[in-house]
Each structure stands twice: as structure tokens, then as C-alpha cells.
Design brief:
By secondary structure, the protein is an alpha+beta fold. It has helices spanning 19-24, 49-81, and strands spanning 33-38, 41-46.
């Protein structure tokens, strides 16, 4: 069942998540949350650590692939000059 709690948005767009929700969802200072717009409904969701790690690994894999492709091109150019 959805829980409703009215909050005031501050000058900089900040909203405080109610303590009972933070406690129940294990949201602590420094944790990351996602803000999702679902057809006009705003959803705040705690970022799952495994999701964050997955995103990091995907970025690392993309970077490694790019470097590998650049090195292959450089190697081919070097061999062509020999």
C-alpha cells in the first residue's frame, strides 16, 4: 500500500525523506537514490549497490575495449611503417 506524506520543497529543490521511510528502506546519509519520472509520478528509489557496481564494471569494460581497439590500430600503423 502506498504511503503518503506531504513535504515542502526547499529553494534548491531539496525534499527530506521521512525518517520512518529512511529507517524502513535502510537509507542513510551518503547513500545514493534515483529520481524516476513515471508518467508524471516521481519515484525516489535507493540505488542498489550491485546495480552501481554493475554500471562501474560496464564502464570499465567499455573503456578497456576502446583502449584495446586504439592499441590494435596503433600496432597496425606501426607494422605498416616497418
Amino acid at each position: 500500500m502506498a504511503e503518503t506524506d506531504i513535504r515542502i520543497v526547499g529553494e534548491r529543490g531539496q525534499v527530506t525523506i521521512p525518517k520512518k521511510i529512511r529507517m524502513r528502506e535502510h537509507i542513510h546519509s551518503g547513500d545514493k537514490v534515483k529520481i524516476i519520472d513515471r508518467d508524471g509520478d516521481i519515484v525516489i528509489k535507493k540505488v542498489d549497490l550491485s546495480e552501481e557496481l554493475k554500471e562501474g564494471y560496464v564502464k570499465m569494460a567499455e573503456t578497456s575495449k576502446k583502449i584495446s581497439e586504439e592499441m590494435l590500430t596503433a600496432s597496425k600503423e606501426a607494422l605498416d611503417r616497418l
